[in-house]
């Protein structure tokens, strides 16, 4: 239908138009808003989450999630030596040591009892 005078004739007959025709958005802006902007947001969110994951895993210079990272600790031996008061259950340790000393002094007493 190609009638340039249609709207004028409709107004002349008393027709009332209830809605204005909306102007369409530019296809370039529509493409940017529906295609490019969500993609940029997803990439930014992915980078942010990857950064937080790497910080949680030990930093950017760490190996994959701490693999190869030793948790070994170096303990320096005391120069004073170990005393009975340092040993948990020191009474039992004293009894066991006194039995060993007794065995070293009187081995016959223990061999008579049997293996």
UniProtKB/TrEMBL annotation:
Record's protein name: Uncharacterized protein
Organism: Eshraghiella crossota DSM 2876
Transmembrane is among the record's keywords: yes
Keyword Membrane in annotation: yes
GO molecular-function term, one example from the UniProt record: metal ion binding
Regions that span the bilayer: 28-50
UniProt keyword list: ATP-binding, Hydrolase, Membrane, Metal-binding, Metalloprotease, Nucleotide-binding, Protease, Transmembrane, Transmembrane helix, Zinc
Cofactor(s) the record lists: Zn(2+)
